[in-house]
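>> received
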Amino acid sequence: MTKNDLRKQLRAKRREHVAALPDSMRTLVFMRPPAPLMEMIPDDATIGLYHAGSSEAPTAAYARYFFEQGHEISLPHFSAMNTRMQFRRFVDPHDESDLETGPFGIKQPTNATEEMVPDVLFVPLVGFTETGGRLGQGGGHYDRWLAAHPGTTTIGLAWDCQLVDTLPTEPHDIPLGAVVTPTRMYGPFA
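>> returned
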């Protein structure tokens, strides 16, 4: 199965899973990082998150949590569809007043905000393995950014239904340091 075929299959599975969740459950999951995950995050770390789409694992509560713990927060930013991904400061995780819709239709910080380099990066994913393999959206933005910033701690957020036994990999695919789902944490991986 190709990566694109697997993405289609896993996206459909993820949409069905999220649609079947009661609204109350969607707001309760991913409220606070689990204690073992916090051991991976230095007290002064800049945290990179993503603004979740409708069926992606939500990040809003994590943004508020880390912000309230005194961490600087950043989100992906694209000046245009054909530009490299940057991370820019996210200063209002409670009301998101400092976000605008970017070229991919995703909320992102404005051009006026400061560019940052996260120490810990929570990444979106379509699928993952229990050893830290990640199938991303297909654009390669995160793999390119991580290749340019080695040493960044990477953590995937996912629904349990996104776990697969194996993934097709390529040399540029960068594995995750850990994965958190509503029921467990995988990793940390070496």
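>> The chain is about 25% helix and 20% strand.
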